[in-house]
Amino acid sequence: MQHKVTVYSTTTCPYCVMVKNFLKQQNIPFTEVNVGLNQEEAANLVRTTGQMGVPQTNVNGQWVLGFDPDGILKALHTN
């Protein structure tokens, strides 16, 4: 099954780097959206999740907030 994983991040966020490194180590392909460079995406993210912080990771429609490897793996295995 092909998973759809999107990481919403900013350039200066160390936890965003940790999430992306975790996904790479697990060989999980993902798309990155830098909300620091795209204000429209930032506004959409806040509207969708009610959260302003990053990283936020969407795994097949489930949101995982912050650096939460267990949450990401759980979301991958429940879809």
Automatic annotation (TrEMBL):
Spans through the membrane: none
One GO MF term attached to the UniProt entry: electron transfer activity
Keywords: Disulfide bond, Redox-active center
Domain Glutaredoxin span(s) in chain numbering: 5-64
Record-level GO BP terms: cell redox homeostasis
SUPFAM superfamilies, sorted: Thioredoxin-like
InterPro entries the UniProt entry points to: GLR_AS, Glutaredoxin, Glutaredoxin_subgr, Grx-like_ET, Thioredoxin-like_sf
PANTHER family hit by this protein: GLUTAREDOXIN, GLUTAREDOXIN-LIKE PROTEIN NRDH
Record-given protein name: Glutaredoxin
Species in which this protein is naturally found: Bacillus coahuilensis p1.1.43
